[in-house]
């Protein structure tokens, strides 16, 4: 006879999962223009113990859990599974704060029409990217002022109005999110800058118009982050930008990392609103991880899933066997414990590489 099982642990109540806290709008807060702080190994060690590092990690995990499929009980007692896909209402009918950011990204993308790529011979990135970046620099303040509420931009320490405002910090992270005009490159550090931009907006209360139960986080990922990736991918193709800070064949991707986190979360097994993020298992009838080597299949699934959208872009810029140019992704595709395990592995790698 088997011993009685231990009593089930109580589930965490809704709202108990860590989320990035917002700043108290009534409390003084000093804003500073961001400057480079990490220059050697000791600086990295300090960063890993900083509140900024904790905030970044918390925000990534908050968005990650929001993208995990959800299950609920229907009137007949059967599970109803909800998934969150590219092109869904979270992108096409988002909160007004997200719509404004979509409009801003559309204007940023349109600058490419004013800076067509140079037709002369070149070895590396196209020099016309510098013209595009100059347009972005010149319009950054106007873009923020047009698409973000004044209550977000003008927050300062509450003194005589001469202090640095939140707009200065936001502009720095926005400009850092679209590559280097000096080096003509783009990489995961620039992607992280855009995540920091979104995290700052969260802390400043810019997304308060979103609905509860993680919907606003899904709006952010599908309605802002995925369109941002589309702009970046067009920049890379238009101006043949070089990979920045790539880890070569030991890296996950030359340009991006976060779409693999959120993309694998889209495909994990469904959870209820009170469950923790799964670390194994897959959505019922989810695409198999091994399918990333089949370009025709990737082209179809990239329309719905961020993971396959990112792999599809690799296929756009690289030729040859997938296992040869992307060995880490190829190895990950062989994981047998499902997309939940892949999600855990990729988050751990993101932490390890410090991108």
From TrEMBL:
It catalyses: [protein]-peptidylproline (omega=180) = [protein]-peptidylproline (omega=0). GO terms for cellular component: cytoplasm; nucleus; protein phosphatase type 2A complex. Keywords: Cytoplasm, Isomerase, Nucleus, Rotamase. PPIases accelerate the folding of proteins. It catalyzes the cis-trans isomerization of proline imidic peptide bonds in oligopeptides. Acts as a regulatory subunit for PP2A-like phosphatases modulating their activity or substrate specificity, probably by inducing a conformational change in the catalytic subunit, a direct target of the PPIase. Can reactivate inactive phosphatase PP2A-phosphatase methylesterase complexes (PP2Ai) in presence of ATP and Mg(2+) by dissociating the inactive form from the complex. Belongs to the PTPA-type PPIase family. InterPro entries: Phstyr_phstse_ac, PTPA_C_lid, PTPA_sf. This is Serine/threonine-protein phosphatase 2A activator. Signal peptide: none annotated.
